Amino acid sequence: MNVTDETSKTTLEESIGEWRAYLRRRQAIHKVDVAELEDHLRSQIHGLVDAGLSDDEAFLVAVKRIGDLDTLSREFAREYSDRLWKQLVVSPEAGPSPEGRKEAIVAVALAIASAVAIKLPELFGFHMSAPITETSFYVRNFSLFVLPLLAGYFAWKRTVDRAGRIWLAIPFVAAVLAVNIFPFDGRGHTLILAAIHLPIALWLAVGYAYIGGRWGDHYRRMDFVRFSGEWFIYYILIALGGGVLMAFTMFIFQAIGFDAEELVASWVMPCGVVGAVIISAWLVEAKKSVIENMAPVLTRLFTPLFTVVLFAFLATMVWTGSAINVEREVLIGFDLLLVVVLGLLLYSISARDPHSPPGVFDVLQLVLVVSALLVDAVALWAITARISEFGFSPNKVAALGENLVLLVNLGWSTVLYTRFLAGHASFTSLERWQTAYLPVFAVWAWVVVLVFPPLFGYR
Predict the structure, then answer these.
(1) Region 10-21: what's the mean pLDDT?
(2) Which among 153, 200, 137, 202 is positioned nearest to 173, based on CA atoms?
């Protein structure tokens, strides 16, 4: 491809990006509709370019063929008033589309397959109820029972090409080989660290499948951020409902003198945990509920609450003069707290109109980021002091790396947010920083999974 072709392709992507941004600003049009329209637009452009048109000509003709956007917006607006009801109850006249039924069948089948996969090793003598040193197989492989199937679901739905499927398979094959070949000490820390970080490392592979292999597209990466937030909320809701179901199951069976605790613990819970991962993803795609409207509300609700908690923690630490207790559980807790804060930041960014002017919530968001940055700096100081006093250990080094990764993200986010509030930069720069930084989290997770075990003697 020559320079002219590369410039043309860049211009085409910029045009599509502007078209997509314009369509997103029409509040009556949902994200899933925008994605479908974009796929249709790209298909039209590809056919027109093959017919001999230039990229610019193909873009203009394709947009015209799809229809006038203002007319399209008005059509969506007329349907919007009853869309909420349509999300809750399927109209018996219309019913689900054949494509929707097909996706539902595939999702349920994959959920069942993941449930079968997690029980299959018990036929070969691996039991989840055994002591931790004997169940290291499940500890190592837990995420591998479901995430490859979830990635396969999106690769099928997004019609990822053959080259993309090969690239998608590489991280999963590497994960299977690494966690099962490494001679982990069942009582060591590197096994637990690898088990915790492997889902993080593989989630980016799921993202690659979700965006159809077009990782270079910033808007697609932001779509994956939105999906991750909505998926998390669906999963928590399903988990809460599943917990109630299991409690009532044990209760009613106990009433007739039958102890169902073993059945629930060894079958219902593990099968439900992995199956719900795929069902939650399908629900996000199918838009069977109103979570896409609830998620931004929940973000606005919890942002001030987490800000108050972080400020209260910092004030209490200064008042009492107490330092952070650098133990494994404490390190994990602090990292989870900072990850939740980062998640709030990411999802609020993804749900915000980048063309809207700065507001009060943006100021609050900046306060939250600065608070998290200070907490991260305090945690880093405590970890560094502990390492200098007692030496290196897998837990401390992992926490050190994770806090450094978060420090860089939060630090530059603070700079970009401040510049946006001051009117010196656009909100898009903050969006691009966050989506471009996503691979850094996966790279560090892979370092913990692949490098830490041999580095620390598999202890």
Answers:
(1) 75
(2) 202
Domain boundary among 269, 286, 303: 286
Q: Within a domain: residue 67?
A: yes
- Structurally, how many domains does the chain consist of? 3
What is the arithmetic mean of pLDDT over 342-367? 86
pLDDT grade, residue 12 (50/70/90)? Answer: confident
Does residue 93 lie within any of the structural domains?
no
- Please give, one letter per residue, the 3-state secondary structure of 277-306: HHHHHHHHHHCCCCHHHHHHHHHHHHHHHH
Q: Can you tell me the distance from the alpha carbon of 30 to that of 80, in angstroms, rounded to the nearest whole number?
A: 10
Assess whether pLDDT exceeds 80 at residue 81: no
- Shared domain check, 362 and 415: yes
How far apart are the C-alpha atoms of 122 and 262, rounded to whole Å? 15
Q: Do residues 45 and 171 both lie within one domain?
A: no
Contacts 24+ apart (CB under 8 A), 20-29: 20/219, 21/219, 21/354, 21/355, 22/69, 23/69, 24/353, 25/353, 25/355, 26/69, 26/72, 26/73, 26/76, 28/73, 28/76, 28/77, 28/79, 28/80, 29/72, 29/73, 29/76
Of the candidate ranges 135-149, 211-225, 391-405, the one whose mean pLDDT is the lowest: 211-225
Q: Residue written as tokens 């019609």? A: 159
Would the pLDDT of 448 be above 50? yes
Residue 441: C-alpha distances to residues 52, 170, 202, 387 (Å): 43, 18, 11, 23
**Angle subtended at Cα 298 by Cα 433 and Cα 437, rounded to the nearest 5 degrees:** 15
Q: Are the CB atoms for 301 and 355 separated by under 8 Å?
A: no
Q: Indicate if 268 and 295 belong to the same structural domain.
A: no
What's the average model confidence in pLDDT over 97-119?
90
**Number of neighbours of residue 240 by Cβ within 10 angstroms:** 10
Give the residue numbers spanning the domain of 27: 3-81
> How far is 127 from 260, CA to CA, in rounded Å?
18
Nearest to 58 by CA among 49, 71, 70: 49
- The answer to whether residue 91 sits within a structural domain is no
Confidence of residue 82 (pLDDT cuts 50, 70, 90): very low
**The last residue of a domain, from among 260, 286, 312:** 286
